[in-house]
Amino acid sequence: MAELKFTLNGRPHTAKDVPADRTLLKYLREDLNLTGTKEGCRQGECGACTVLINGEPVNACMVYMGSLEGADVLTIEGLAKNGELDKVQKAFVDCGAIQCGFCSPGMIMTVKALLMKNPTPTEDEIRHAISGNLCRCTGYKKIVQAARVAAGLEEAPDGAKRGGQHVVGRNAARRDTVAKAQGKAVFADDFRIPGLLIARAKRSPYASALIKKIDLEKAKTMPGVVTILTAEDIPGLPFCGQVYKDMPVICRDKVRNQGDPVAVVIAETEELADAAVKEIQVEYEPLPVIRDVHEALQEGAYQIHDSGNLRQIFNIRKGDADEAFEKCAAVVENVYKTALQEHAFIETECSVAYYDPNDGYLTVLTPTQEVYSDRRQIAASLALPQNAVRVIQAVTGGAFGGKIDISTEIIAALGCMKTLRPVKYRYSREESMAVSTKRHPYETHIKIGADENGKILAMKATVYCDNGAYSSMGAKVVQKGCCNLTGPYNIPNVSVDSFLVYTNRPFGGAMRGFGIPQAEFACESAVEELACKMGIPGDEFRRINATHIGDTTPTGMTLRSANITEHIDAAMEYLKAHPYPYEAPPAEHVVRGTGIAAFIYPIGLGYGTNDSTTVICRLCDDGSVLVVSGAADLGQGSNNVLARITAEELGTTEDNIRVRTADTAYTPFAGLSSGSRQTYVSGRAAMEAARQVRGYMARGAAEMLRARPEAISFAENKVYINGVETEKTFQQVASYCYGHAIPQMGTYRADITTKPVDMETGQGDPFADFVYGAHAADVEVNTETGKLDVKRIVAVHDVGHIINPIGLQGQIDGAISMGYGQAVMEEVLTKDGHLVTPSFAEYMIPTSEDSPETVFIPLETPSDFGPYGARGMAEPAVVGVAPAICNAIYHACGVRVTEVPITQERLKALLDAKRREEAK
């Protein structure tokens, strides 16, 4: 196609010599460097690439250039005018509708199109309009609010102070969201560098096979191919992994998971790399496929790894469960199953590696949850000293635990060092679905009994955890889940046996909740079943058995905090004051029910893992402040939290703080952004480091004003003596400190490192602190069709102290949405080890039209450790959703759900079975 003319962002545009079948997405991103339009799936399923063509929202990945003659194309880059954000962009920023920001440009364009046609849409119309745009972070509630604010239908959240603090606790937009709203945030795939090569992997179609021969000859000679990597090219450790190093960087002689890489093409362009991959010929010898944990543990079963199929046994022993069951008035036994769940971050894994020959420094830019872990594994595989490797966290488009493990990093680095040119390796959506970690499936056999007063005396459980083909974080996930299998209840006699088992399915890793959603589904379902059997209301039964300060956990740890009864009371009071629904059921065969679930969630990494973090606070002589931390912000807003805490402590404004994070060359160790720990640990470190600097500034101000340092205070850039404002400013004091050699830097290391537990008995103190919560769910069930409609989730959480109300609400909404997906629709399906749900076309996550109403009720019981008493909250809200929904189903129609997701087909089968049983 010689020439194509159309309007782009309000200006005439001519495209020359562009193939008619080139997608608009590729043209925008690769030819024009308009990277605000994102690629999430290339199938028109996620909406990340939404642009407006003639005012209509379309997926740019599905539009070919040949169709654009005379069209009017508007991208996110064309929305702001004269340096001012469009009203939709501003509303998204003000309402906290942006977290990771990867889906935000597409979402904003869709809302813009809606308001152009319908200036005053209803909430249902907004939800319908954005239903083609997927968001994994927000749960859509804030997005709907932003659309309403942009339409003038409601006001944006105000910035009122709370609790007497100036910065902490006030609603305020995160500064990083302004760039994200404009499409200016640079994610890894947006990074542009001269001479960039593209990596593409040849992946195994088998879930279990020997590699007999790899023929690279034809592929090597193809135009644009620079090199092809195999396992022979790895100079150092050929395996990677978080706990056990058992995952090949590139497979040498055997594949254990469909999609395992056997060779990697490094070429000049994506198209040339893809073409070369097709020409690599691999001869395989299929091996037996282990499909589930029970097949794996059978005597004589094929052994996936040389170490066998049983990766870990972990037991918990407290009291004597068998003896206690003899004293029980009521006992229930059941088996509860959870499924493989996909992280489904909209940004797939991507790394860019580049090398500086002047100092021999290899740099890897990647979306990651921990730069130091990545550096350690990259250096080990490339046989480089760690000080020769720099890892920088790119702006990250969601993670939820799924970007802890190595994915693209080592291969990008290896390609770079072999070619001495920059290399980008990005997973397609199908690759990400095939080879990224998942939420582990649990099969939990549980027995629980209580005395005649409803006091639980014993729990006995056997847990089978399907680890998939490789270890990842499985060993820690199953430990954390099993240690919390008794939930927030004081059960004196506990016996748990857990088995972490290899299969030839996709492998499990860290995922939001880290093993506890699976455990709590079993616990809360069994507790509710026992309460019903004894005729005791579920809320009352939970109060009878609630833990209290001084009680011990199944690991023998003495609780220093325990307030689950307050959560249950708050949830029940809300339900009583706000009964649901407000109108009669739509049909006779539609029934309604409410269910509750209570839970406990440990903060931090636990089990003796190094759980410390260091934050540096530097004062500049113009009064600006630099905070340096290794903590990775994944969209949860930890950078904002560190800035707010620092501003509060120093008595300056948040816009005076700049935060630099997650760069191994410059930032101190902060550990994983996992376990809901960054606010709790890094926030504490930031607070203490800022207090040091404030002390230095008080000394400087005292010298300037001839006062005592203890009389000096700062607030909103003003300086006070005994509460009386002076003529000096924060900036003037900073400048004075520099000129008079008063220290300008504070450093603090916060540490909540615990101790390992005994693997035979589970006894020990594995956790630093706990948070508690309770969820209630209102549901409707169509007893004829099995259709489930979750109407409302009420979430009560002890947050300790609220740092940013908008950000906190967003974390709660997003976690509830993920828990809702686990409960009713999300399941990675395999057949003989082969993926049946390889993309967003087959794997469903909640859309804006699926998501139920959410109500968040915060409780604030200050922690002894967290900054201002704050507790971590990124993960706990996912935990209670599935059991609350399933308990509500039971109270609606008398069907006990023991397996999630509870799809319409599964629920109908249970209803049919109940009818057959009643007819006997």
Commentary on this structure:
This protein has 920 residues and is an alpha+beta fold. The protein is 28% helix and 24% strand. The chain contains 23 helices and 37 strands. The strands form 10 sheets. It has a 7-stranded mixed β-sheet, with helices on both faces. The protein has a 5-stranded mixed β-sheet with strand order 2-1-5-3-4, covered by helices on one side. Helix 2 packs across helix 5 and helix 11 packs across helix 12. The longest helix has 28 residues. It is globular.
Based on CA atoms alone, the radius of gyration comes out at: 28 Å
Find the structural class using helix and strand composition: alpha+beta
Proportion of residues in helical segments: 25-40%
* Terminal CA distance: 72 Å
Shape: globular
The proportion of residues in beta strands is 15-25%
Uncertain ranges: none
List keywords for this structure.
alpha+beta; five-stranded mixed beta sheet; globular; 23 helices; seven-stranded mixed beta sheet; 920 residues
Write the layout of secondary structure elements.
Elements lengths: L2 E6 L2 E6 L7 H8 L18 E4 L2 E4 L12 E3 L12 H8 L9 H14 L5 H7 L11 H10 L25 H6 L15 E7 L5 E7 L1 H4 L4 E5 L9 E2 L6 E2 L5 E2 L5 E7 L2 H10 L1 E6 L6 H5 L12 E9 L2 H5 L4 E8 L3 E2 L7 E7 L4 E6 L4 H12 L6 E5 L15 H11 L3 E4 L2 H7 L2 E2 L2 E9 L5 E13 L5 H10 L9 E10 L13 H19 L3 H8 L18 H14 L12 E14 L8 E8 L5 E5 L8 H13 L6 E5 L16 H28 L6 E4 L2 E4 L2 E6 H10 L5 E7 L17 E14 L5 E11 L6 H20 L5 E2 L2 E2 L17 E7 L21 H13 L10 H16 L1
Parallel strand pairs: 1-5, 6-20, 18-19, 23-24, 27-28, 34-37
Antiparallel strand pairs: 1-2, 3-4, 3-5, 6-12, 7-11, 7-13, 8-12, 9-10, 14-24, 15-22, 16-21, 17-18, 17-20, 22-23, 25-33, 26-27, 26-32, 29-30, 30-31, 33-34, 35-36
Helix pairs in contact: 2-5, 11-12, 14-15, 15-22, 18-19, 19-20, 21-22
